[in-house]
Design a protein that fits this description.
Length: about 230
C-alpha cells in the first residue's frame, strides 16, 4: 500500500506541471543561445584572415554585425530590456515584461512589473517591488480565493515557507540576523477573496525571479480552476 496520500500525489502532479514549463522555457533559451553561437561561428569564419593588428579596430564593428544578424533572425523573439535589482539602468533575467513605472517611495525606488499568463498574455498583476519587499496585487477584474489550489499548498507552503525555513537555518548559524528572515503577508477579505501578497526580506535577485515565476504560474492555475 502506498505511503503517499492523495494530497501528496496531487501536489506532486502540480509540481511536475510547473517543472515541465520550466524545462520548456530553458530549452527555448538554449536553442536561442545555440543560434547565436552559430552566427558568431559563421562570422568568425568569414573574418578568419584578419590580421592581429586590425582585430582591435574591427572589434566594435564585428559586435555590431553579430547583434544585427541576431536581431534580424529573432525579430519577433527579442524582449524589451528588463530592470535589475542592482541598478535601474541594467537588465534582469526574469521571464516577464519590463517595469511599467518607476517612482521613489520613502527613498526607495519602487518598480512595477506586469505578470501575465503565458498562453494568452492575460494580465494578472502589476506587481511592485523595491530592494526590501515585493507586493503582488491582483488586477481589479480578477477574483481568486485563497482556498483555491495551488495557492496555499504550493505558493505559500512550498515556495515561501521553504525560503523561510532556509533563512531560519541561516539565522541559527549566525549567517543572517532574525530581522533579515523572509516573511510574507496575505491580504484577503472575510470570504477569502485574495487582494494581494506582500513578501519582505527576499534579499536575492534569484528569489525575486522565483517569486514572480511561481506567482504567475500559481495564479494562472487558479484562474483555470475558477473557470
Amino acid at each position: 500500500m502506498s505511503s503517499f496520500s492523495e494530497e501528496d500525489i496531487r501536489r506532486a502532479a502540480e509540481v511536475r506541471e510547473w517543472l515541465i514549463k520550466e524545462v520548456t522555457n530553458k530549452k527555448e533559451e538554449l536553442d536561442k543561445l545555440r543560434d547565436t553561437l552559430s552566427i558568431v561561428d559563421s562570422l568568425l569564419k568569414k573574418t578568419s584572415f584578419i590580421t592581429a593588428s586590425s582585430l582591435e579596430s574591427s572589434g566594435t564593428n564585428l559586435k555590431d554585425k553579430i547583434k544585427t544578424e541576431y536581431e534580424s533572425s529573432h525579430k519577433e523573439e527579442i524582449p524589451r530590456s528588463r530592470p535589475s535589482l542592482e541598478s535601474t539602468t541594467k537588465s534582469t533575467d526574469a521571464d516577464f515584461d519590463v517595469h511599467d513605472d518607476v517612482h521613489d517611495d520613502s527613498n526607495q525606488t519602487v518598480e512595477t512589473r506586469a505578470l501575465k499568463r503565458v498562453r494568452d498574455n492575460f494580465l494578472i498583476s502589476n506587481a511592485e517591488y523595491t530592494s526590501t519587499y515585493v507586493r503582488i496585487p491582483l488586477v481589479d477584474d480578477i477574483n481568486l480565493n485563497i482556498n483555491t489550489p495551488p495557492f496555499k499548498s504550493f505558493f505559500l507552503n512550498r515556495i515561501l515557507e521553504g525560503m523561510r525555513t532556509k533563512d531560519k537555518e541561516k539565522n541559527q548559524k549566525g549567517e543572517i540576523n532574525a530581522s533579515e528572515v523572509i516573511d510574507y503577508k496575505v491580504d484577503s477579505d472575510q470570504d477569502g477573496n485574495l487582494n494581494s501578497v506582500t513578501i519582505t526580506n527576499y534579499r536575492e535577485k534569484e528569489r525575486l525571479n522565483e517569486i514572480f515565476n511561481t506567482a504567475t504560474w500559481v495564479f494562472s492555475r487558479m484562474l483555470e480552476k475558477g473557470n
